[in-house]
Write a structure and sequence with these properties.
139 residues; alpha+beta; five-stranded mixed β-sheet; 4 helices; 38% helix; elongated
Length: 139
């Protein structure tokens, strides 16, 4: 019988899911090297934003996740500002933008990492549906 591990998430944690806006257009217009640079810059910006208070990683494609251990250390505006800074690649300024979603772990019926990321992902897609460069705190 196969088993699995349910990872509990503390109520004080604050998960984020972000997705680059217009990533395909950036790749098509400026080439895959520019797209790769955008992915690397986004990862660096997320890692810097998390600092010692959390962890960040790429989920796949142009989607990333970050989990901050302490809501008090969370600065949502700083994250969106960092993700919306242009990137200079081969002498060209590339506009970067991301839609970001988050959830309140305390509001989840089951406080698992899977459920927290799923809720943040749903909030991110709701923000993306409203307008690009969006953010949504909860779904």
């Amino acid at each position: 019988m196969a088993g699995f591990v349910v990872t509990p998430v503390p109520e004080s944690a604050n998960p984020r899911v972000s997705d680059l806006d217009h990533f395909k257009a950036l790749n098509d217009t400026h080439g895959h090297a520019a797209g790769d640079a955008a992915l690397a810059a986004t990862a660096d910006r997320l890692r810097a934003w998390c600092g010692h208070n959390g962890t960040a990683g790429r989920l796949g494609g142009d989607e990333f996740a970050a989990v901050i251990r302490d809501v008090a250390a969370d600065d949502f505006d700083a994250l969106t500002t960092a993700l919306h800074q242009p990137l200079t690649h081969r002498g060209v300024s590339l506009p970067l933008a991301a839609s970001v979603g988050t959830c309140r772990v305390a509001d989840l019926p089951l406080r698992t990492l899977t459920d927290a990321l799923a809720s943040a992902d749903a909030a991110m897609y709701a923000a993306k549906g409203r307008s690009r460069r969006g953010s949504r705190r909860t779904h």
